[in-house]
């Protein structure tokens, strides 16, 4: 059922890949929705299915992909059943995507102003001079310095951070309803990462685009996301508001992700990670796929898949630990440190926002 405020609904999506080694069960019954103007973060380790999920939203699945169930409804219409022509219109104007490596999404032979203007000319039929003027405005909006003089430069003349800003400008020029950002900062160095995240937060305030933000780093989610979906082995295992996921996490996998978030005083080479490896999706285990790595696993975890248990109206987790008859366990102590760090990050972001607001009011005559 399509509720009014959801612009996107993914229902019981199942995707396999045919390979020489057998059938990879990459997406194993994923459901979520996206509301107008919100940012949804999808977090999870490598191979959990984040990219495949979002590629299905764009109708961009690999040739060996087989959708074995479910649907992806954009304003009620199934993307997985759209014609090539409908998909092209969707991708150009309604749903845009930015990737990890800006260089792969830019055309090295085309001047950047033209690249930013192109989607306007192709999808909205805007005349070149007007499209170029809008491209210049967008360059300024995404913080490309000296935009007037740089509009005719080529991608290689820009730094990595500036290139990612160009990619964001191209993605936003048509004011898409959904922006998918797949690890948009991981290829950039830490300072630039922070700047791009700041930019995305600012843009989110200015443009009411809904954002699906993919990351394996829970720390990045602070201040970016409204809600978080935690993925493991092709499934969503926990879903909640950002505060619910950080301050009241219920799934042991989420505990693991939180524990592996760096604290302020750990340096990155001693970053703990969740012991063990994700399951082989050619032959996913029976029961809860996280059980072999879960120190709190119950007997039933190896026998039967856990359903979603409701924690609040907005918070669900698929773990047998939430069954009324399950033994009571408390999350590992070390996540308290991470929660403190997270609270600090939230506070810093709040201060930053206030600071911006003060600056804005000062600028006014
Ligand atoms: N074309 C393909 N053929 C076979 N298997 C595939 C294909 N594309 C993805 N997969 C598999 O699907 C699973 C999910 O992959 P996906 O790229 O969505 O992971 P991810 O969560 O985005 O990981 P990462 O954080 O590394 O980007 C993985 O096991 C991957 O190997
Ligand atoms: Mg990915």
TrEMBL record:
The lineage of its organism: Bacteria, Bacillati, Bacillota, Bacilli, Lactobacillales. Keywords: ATP-binding, Cell membrane, Membrane, Nucleotide-binding, Transport. This is ABC transporter ATP-binding protein. It is a peripheral membrane protein. GO terms for molecular function: ATP binding. It is found in: Cell membrane. Residues 10-258 form the ABC transporter domain. Residues 344-365 are annotated as: Disordered. SUPFAM superfamilies: P-loop containing nucleoside triphosphate hydrolases. Its main location: membrane. Gene3D superfamilies: P-loop containing nucleotide triphosphate hydrolases. PROSITE patterns: ABC_TRANSPORTER_1, ABC_TRANSPORTER_2. Coiled coil: none annotated. Belongs to the ABC transporter superfamily. Pfam families: ABC_tran, oligo_HPY. CDD domains: ABC_NikE_OppD_transporters.
